[in-house]
C-alpha cells in the first residue's frame, strides 16, 4: 500500500521500569480507513501497542507516529475498552455528549450530533436511560457512540466485545463494520478471537509474548460488507484455519521462563 500511513511504529521497543521487555522491535503501519486486528496470547503487548498509539505511554526506543501524538489532533483518536466505562450517574445522552463537552460544545449545540450517533448505534430510544438500565451489549453500543461522536480518524479498540455473549458479539461485529465503513475511519482492534479477527479485518497481525513482537501477518482479501453468509463460507473457514495455525505458532514461541 503506498498511502501515507496514519499510524506508524518503526522498530519500537518498550521496557517497563521494573525491567520487563513488553515490546521488542515492533514495526507496523495502519493506513487511513484500514481495519487491522492484533491477535496474540495474553501479555504479548497488544494493549501496550494501543497505549503507545493513543499517546498514553511512550516507547523506550524506536519511532511512533500517530494522530494523537500531534497535539491538536488528539480528538481524532478514540479508544474503546473492554469495560464500557460509562458514568453511572449520567444518562446515555450525557455520556455520549462528554467528549464534545470536553471540547466546550454545549448540550444544545451537541444535541443533533449526539442523537445522530445514538441512532446509528441503535440507541435512539434510550437517550434518557441510565447505564444500569442497559444490557451489556447496549452499554457497549453507548461506549462506541461516545467514541464515534467526535468523528475520529482512528478508532482503537481493546477487546471491546470479549465480555459479551456470542450472538450479541456477532451482531456488534456486523454493526461495527457498518460504522467503520460509514465513518471511513481506521480501526486497530485487539482481540483473542481468531473468528472475530477474520470476520472484521483486512489484515491481522499475530503477536508472540516474552518479549512481545509481531510474528506473522495474515491478509483477508474478502469484500465488504461481510454478512452472516461470510461467517459460514468456505473462504472464512480457510482463513480461520490459517490464522489458527499462525496463532499456535505464536504460542509455541512463548517459551516458559524465557528471558524478558
Ligand atoms: N505499567 C506496566 N508496568 C509493568 N509491566 C507492565 C505494565 N503494563 C503492562 N505490563 C506488562 O507488559 C506485558 C504486556 O502487557 P499488555 O497488557 O500490553 O499485554 P496484552 O497482550 O494486551 O495482554 P492481555 O491479552 O492479557 O490483555 C505484560 O507482561 C504486562 O504484565
From TrEMBL:
One of its GO terms (molecular function) is ATP hydrolysis activity. Belongs to the ABC transporter superfamily. This is NitT/TauT family transport system ATP-binding protein. Residues 7-236 form the ABC transporter domain. InterPro entries: AAA+_ATPase (IPR003593), ABC_transporter-like_ATP-bd (IPR003439), ABC_transporter-like_CS (IPR017871), ABC_transporter_ATP-bind (IPR050166), P-loop_NTPase (IPR027417). It comes from Roseateles toxinivorans. Keywords: ATP-binding, Cell membrane, Membrane, Nucleotide-binding, Transport. It comes from the Bacteria. Pfam families: ABC_tran (PF00005). PROSITE patterns: ABC_TRANSPORTER_1, ABC_TRANSPORTER_2.
Amino acid at each position: 500500500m503506498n498511502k501515507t500511513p496514519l499510524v506508524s511504529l518503526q522498530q519500537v521497543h518498550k521496557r517497563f521500569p521494573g525491567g520487563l521487555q513488553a515490546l521488542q522491535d515492533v514495526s507496523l503501519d495502519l493506513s487511513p480507513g484500514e481495519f487491522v486486528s492484533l491477535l496474540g496470547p495474553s501479555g504479548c503487548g497488544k494493549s501496550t501497542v494501543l497505549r503507545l498509539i493513543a499517546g498514553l505511554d511512550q516507547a523506550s526506543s524506536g519511532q511512533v507516529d500517530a494522530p494523537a501524538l500531534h497535539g491538536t489532533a488528539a480528538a481524532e483518536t478514540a479508544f474503546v475498552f473492554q469495560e464500557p466505562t460509562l458514568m453511572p450517574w449520567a444518562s446515555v445522552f450525557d455520556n455520549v455528549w462528554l467528549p464534545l463537552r470536553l471540547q466546550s460544545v454545549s448540550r444544545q449545540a451537541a444535541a443533533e450530533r449526539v442523537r445522530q450517533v445514538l441512532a446509528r448505534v441503535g440507541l435512539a430510544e434510550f437517550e434518557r436511560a441510565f447505564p444500569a438500565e442497559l444490557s451489556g451489549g447496549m452499554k457497549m453500543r453507548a461506549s462506541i457512540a461516545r467514541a464515534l461522536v467526535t468523528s475520529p480518524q482512528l478508532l482503537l479498540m481493546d477487546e471491546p466485545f470479549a465480555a459479551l455473549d456470542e450472538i450479541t458479539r456477532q451482531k456488534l461485529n456486523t454493526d461495527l463494520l457498518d460504522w467503520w465503513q460509514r465513518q471511513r475511519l481506521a480501526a486497530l482492534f485487539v482481540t483473542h478471537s481468531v473468528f472475530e479477527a477474520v470476520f472484521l479485518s483486512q489484515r491481522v497481525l499475530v503477536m508472540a509474548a516474552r518479549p512481545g513482537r509481531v510474528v506473522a501477518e495474515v491478509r483477508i482479501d474478502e469484500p465488504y460488507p461481510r454478512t452472516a453468509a461470510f461467517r459460514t463460507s468456505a473462504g472464512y473457514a480457510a482463513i480461520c484455519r490459517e490464522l489458527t495455525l499462525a496463532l499456535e505458532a505464536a504460542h509455541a514461541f512463548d517459551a516458559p521462563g524465557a528471558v524478558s
